[in-house]
Amino acid sequence: MKIKQAEFVGSFTSLKQLPARSLPEIAFAGRSNVGKSSLINRLLGRKNLARTSGTPGKTRQLNYILVNDAFYIVDLPGYGYAKVSRREKMQWQKLVEDYITHSAALRCIVSVIDSRHGPTDSDMELISWLAWLGKPSLVVASKVDKLKQKDYHKAKHRITAAVEQLPVSGPMFFSAVSGRGKKELWAVLADFLEM
Ligand SMILES: Nc1nc2c(ncn2[C@@H]2O[C@H](COP(=O)(O)OP(=O)(O)OP(=O)(O)O)[C@@H](O)[C@H]2O)c(=O)[nH]1
Ligand SMILES: [Mg+2]
């Protein structure tokens, strides 16, 4: 995919606020700090279009990015971050659930997991839930640059074994630091977008 244009559209905390213009969407979900926003920036070749941070819980709204004036990338708040209040956690969770269950234009939800320790129980919960809902989804294991070659092969086996039992696409492997897997990931996302 050639990225001619990528612009931040806005951050939304309720479905009522979402952009009026309907375009195909690809959303990125997963545990907090797993690297969703970094992955999006690397995919788009932009530094901080999706805001990132070493502190978990950076993304707190539905963040819309318009790409090539043709589709949206949606950066979702992460789950499982312990240091926010229970009330706030429930608000994020409800927002993400409402979005995933109601968005008509959603072509694919990318479940991002950490290649070093995923899929965790909470990752499997999300991935299974998406499969149960019948939503098209794709598992991407990120941060592969943090693995030595030998550990990478082990991780690949472990993640593939867990994911292949479910009716989801992937797993694919990615690094936001090196850009590894970017071309392959775009090819699959373009298929979901039918572009
Ligand atoms: N080495 C390495 N570090 C990464 C990679 N992707 C993300 N990180 C780091 O992991 C931390 C979290 O990245 P984010 O992209 O903010 O994670 P997130 O999933 O968007 O987090 P929330 O917004 O809290 O849900 C940051 O310190 C990133 O620099 C990667 O592929 N390799
Ligand atoms: Mg984020």
Write up what this structure looks like:
With 195 residues, the chain is an alpha/beta fold. The chain has five helices and seven strands, in the order ββαββαβαβαβα. The chain has a seven-stranded mixed sheet with strand order 1-3-4-2-5-6-7, sandwiched between helices. The termini are close together. The structure holds guanosine-5'-triphosphate and magnesium ion (MG). Magnesium ion is lined by residues 36-37, 58-59, 75.
The largest β sheet comes out as: 7 strands, mixed
Radius of gyration: 16 Å
CATH homologous superfamily label: P-loop containing nucleotide triphosphate hydrolases
Counted by DSSP, the helix tally is: 5
CATH class: Alpha Beta
**Structural category:** alpha/beta
- Helices and strands, in order, run as EEHEEHEHEHEH
Q: What is the third-level CATH name, the topology? A: Rossmann fold
- Number of DSSP-assigned strands: 7
Give the uncertain stretches in residue-range form: none
Mean pLDDT: 92
Q: Write out the distinct hetero groups bound to the structure.
A: guanosine-5'-triphosphate, magnesium ion
The helix content is 25-40%
Order the strands across the largest sheet as they lie in space. Answer: 1-3-4-2-5-6-7
User: Gap between N and C termini, in Å?
Assistant: 9 Å
The domain count comes to 1
Shape: globular
Q: How much beta, percentage-wise?
A: 15-25%
CATH architecture: 3-Layer(aba) Sandwich
